[in-house]
Amino acid sequence: MSNLQPLLSRNRYTDEEWALAVAGRCGWNTANYPRLEWCGQPSDPNSFYRFCTEHDQQAREEAPATYGH
User: Fold this and answer.
1) Residue 7 included in any domain
2) 58 assigned to some structural domain
3) Could you give the C-alpha distances from 20 to 7, 28, 37, in angstroms and in order?
4) Which pLDDT tens digit goes with each residue over 10-69?
5) Strands annotated E in the chain
6) From residue 31, how far is each of 13, 27, 38, 51 by CA, in Å?
7) Quick check: 19 and 10 in contact, CB under 8 A?
8) Which residue(s) pair with 42 in the sheet?
9) How many domains does the chain have?
């Protein structure tokens, strides 16, 4: 049994992000748009978005309305 947070709705993810999320990997885009390059580090068990610890914190700080506090 996984110790990760339950996944959000499937339509929240792109196909690439979904594959990373179900594998317990961070789907944060580390490259500049439009090029996509995923972080891929292990997901933080407390991240509802299945980001790694660093990117979960970054998301919450940069976009609190989207990712929460």
Assistant:
1) no
2) yes
3) 11, 10, 12
4) 888 889 989 999 999 999 999 977 888 999 999 999 898 899 999 999 999 998 888 876
5) none
6) 17, 12, 8, 15
7) no
8) 25
9) 1
